[in-house]
Amino acid sequence: MQTTKSHRAVLALVEGALMIALATILDFLPPFYRFPQGGSIDLSMVPILLYCLRWGPKWSLGCCFVNGVLQYFLGGGIAISWQSMLLDYVVAYTLVFFCGFAAGRKLGWLWGTLVAGLGRWVSLTLSGGLLWYMYMPESFLGLPMVDPWVYSAFSNGVFIALVTVVNLVVLGVFQAVPQIRDRLMKKQY
To answer: For residues 130 and 29, what is the distance between their CA atoms, to the nearest angstrom?
Structure first.
């Protein structure tokens, strides 16, 4: 059976909806670790990253945007203003779509996940430096904090690095098992 353009579009939309639903379900499960200042280490990004790696940036942009909106509204998002809602959730999760540029490339799962983490880190660091600075502690991990931008970059860097490592471990296992790799990580567009 030959796949038509409209058939691929329906498949991309349905798979995107399923991956967002799975990410939302995973977000409701108890996390591996919850940070005191917000954020948690869990598996909720794995389905979104898989979608990006399967469908590329064109389809990933919409999927990541919807996931970001739902992360705020369904995940009990905390925001001090509409700007923090945008930067901490909508923009941060939408930038994960950059992972889609790695679709179908050698080691795409690896560098795509790293680029997705970098995008989230940039958005969260901007939010911390611009909006959350008044909550900066005097010290973080035993280091004195005097500049809100340094604190934001450092604390969000630790958070995103840990989340990215968990995502890389799971995707690495998927990549290492041929049956899973051929089913889940195969480029679809």
So the answer is: 31
